[in-house]
């Protein structure tokens, strides 16, 4: 199983792309600006998009992706791309993005009977099969309804992505029950902005260290969602606070394998 990091930044600048992960070649987990680095043929191979929540940095690639590949997929007789998310997230996409004002409604275009996109609601705790891969929906604690995902890689363990989240006891209770091989977890702010992290339900190094104390098993820990220009300071603070885990910062273009 391959997970290609298309984007993992908390915002944009040259060389920084927002959250998007490509699982093998057909499942996209979040759809931030990193999606735009894929060739058109690779975009057309994406059959499923799993969305953690409705914030722009995680979803802005969906409408542009639909427009880019619609014709290729129709010519090849491919089905609509399936967008999987919490019901509240799908409702937000319908109301605020695919509303005919910000962007055309590709759940009804080019034809209602043959749309470019179809929405599929998820629930926390649900496991869904994507080919031979099983993906579980994890809880998240954010300012809007949100979730994370655990991809089952069999004996190798799980690849876990928390999505955007603040402190979340329910997450660690579930992770204690499965084998976590790789954990991708956010740290959106430095310790100088921990109050902002608390208000916006993100993590800073201090709160991340408290969360990781609940991860008893050894795992590779990767930090995502750091703001451009803040990586060195955030990672120094994390390494000073957490001596138990192997923690590194993700970077766009990185390939994770299980």
Automatic annotation (TrEMBL):
Its EC number is 3.1.4.17. SUPFAM superfamilies: Metallo-hydrolase/oxidoreductase. Keywords: Hydrolase. Residues 17-225 form the Metallo-beta-lactamase domain. One of its GO terms (molecular function) is 3',5'-cyclic-nucleotide phosphodiesterase activity. InterPro entries: Metallo-B-lactamas, Pdiesterase2, RibonucZ/Hydroxyglut_hydro. Gene3D superfamilies: Ribonuclease Z/Hydroxyacylglutathione hydrolase-like. It holds the Pfam family Lactamase_B_2. PANTHER family: 3',5'-CYCLIC-NUCLEOTIDE PHOSPHODIESTERASE 1. This is 3',5'-cyclic-nucleotide phosphodiesterase. The keyword Hydrolase applies. The keyword Signal does not apply. It is an enzyme of class 3 (hydrolase).
